[in-house]
Amino acid sequence: MGIIQIVGAALVVTILSILVKRMGSDIGLMVSILGGILIFFMVLPQLIEVISVLGNLAQNIDTNLNHITIILRVIGVAYIAEFGAQICKDAGEGAIASKIELSGKVIIMVMSAPVIVSFLNVIITMLPS
Amino acid sequence: MDISSVFQIATVGILVAVLNQVLNSVGRSEQATMTTLAGVVIVLFWVIHHISDLFSTVQTLFQF
């Protein structure tokens, strides 16, 4: 799906969302949520291609694949946390948005701990001790 | 998941808003709030269905 269709759909959804909000119903927020989901599904084919290219690249270089899976998981967690936080900000709930961002950072930190540890081990072994 | 579902929800939103105003002007404000509530609940079920689609797709895509 090209950028033109995506931006066109996004503009239509924004106009609809403002229209419904202006008419006094809080369904406008749900229209904007659905717009975000719609655009994600529009970009999905390209995203799948990028991830498969990343996977093939990793198989050639990295023998143990858990680094790539951890990176993919971190990207997924970051995307969903960002998605939720932006929607809460749109709705005016800044406090909830910052809580979502905090939990996203904590989860990503926990997930990437083993990678950091293995990275430090590699550095330590290189040091002339 | 295409743009028609966004249009459906927008039409339901507009209908609920218009109905609310009409019922309020006629004087039946209880029915007005009832219809608004019903509209929001129906739209909520739709949106939650699409949100669960999104989350399951992201989970299978990013393998977590």
Topology summary:
The complex is a heterodimer of chains A (129) and B (64).
Chain A: H1 3-22, H2 27-61, H3 66-90, H4 94-126
Chain B: H1 3-26, H2 29-62
Describe it for me?
The complex is a heterodimer of chains A (129) and B (64). Chain A has helices at residues 3-22, 27-61, 66-90, 94-126. Chain A has 129 residues and is an all-alpha fold. In chain A, α1 runs antiparallel to α2 (27-61), α2 packs antiparallel against α3 and α3 packs antiparallel against α4. The N and C termini of chain A lie far apart (55 Å). In chain B, α1 (3-26) packs antiparallel against α2. The model of chain B has no long low-confidence stretch (mean pLDDT 92). With 64 residues, chain B is mainly alpha-helical. Chain B has helices spanning 3-26, 29-62. The two termini of chain B are 22 Å apart. The chains are: A mainly alpha (129), B mainly alpha (64). Chain A binds chain B through residues 9, 12-13, 16-17, 19-20, 23-28, 30-31, 33-35, 37-38, 40-41, 44, 47-48, 51, 69, 72-73, 75-77, 79-80, and chain B through 1-3, 5-7, 9-10, 12-14, 16-18, 20-21, 36, 39-40, 43-44, 46-47, 50-51, 53-55, 57-59, 61-64.
Question: Separation of termini of chain B?
Answer: 22 Å
Number of strand elements of chain B: 0
Q: What is the count of DSSP helices of chain B, taking H or I runs of 4+ residues?
A: 2
Give the radius of gyration of chain B.
16 Å
User: Helical stretch count of chain A?
Assistant: 4
What string gives the helices and strands of chain A in order?
Answer: HHHH
Concise summary:
With 129 residues, chain A is mainly alpha-helical. Chain A contains four helices and no strands. In chain A, helix 1 packs antiparallel against helix 2 (27-61) and helix 3 runs antiparallel to helix 4 (94-126).
